[in-house]
Design brief:
mainly alpha, about 0% strand
Length: about 80
């Protein structure tokens, strides 16, 4: 094996290196695509949870307002009228 075969061996090495790097790049792109999909799903879930939290807070505020109205003390005069009846 002399110097005559070196250019061909170098080309083969470069071709193998390109193929290996191409595979690594493709794998990395697939990982990025999967990560982006997970990120998108997580953002959607967060938005849904925020909307549910806002709705629950609104319902809680309404219930608290109703409880506050219902627990307003009755004046003694009204209480005496109720017990006489």
């Amino acid at each position: 094996m002399g110097l005559d075969g070196l250019p061909q061996q170098f080309e083969q090495f470069v071709d193998r290196a390109r193929a290996a790097l191409g595979g690594e790049i493709t794998a990395a792109k697939n990982i990025i695509a999967a990560a982006n999909a997970e990120k998108s799903a997580a953002q959607s879930a967060v938005a849904t949870l925020q909307a549910q939290c806002k709705a629950a807070q609104s319902q809680l505020d309404e219930i608290n307002n109703e409880l506050q109205r219902a627990s307003t003390p009755v004046s003694p005069a009204k209480l005496q009228r109720r017990t006489r009846s």
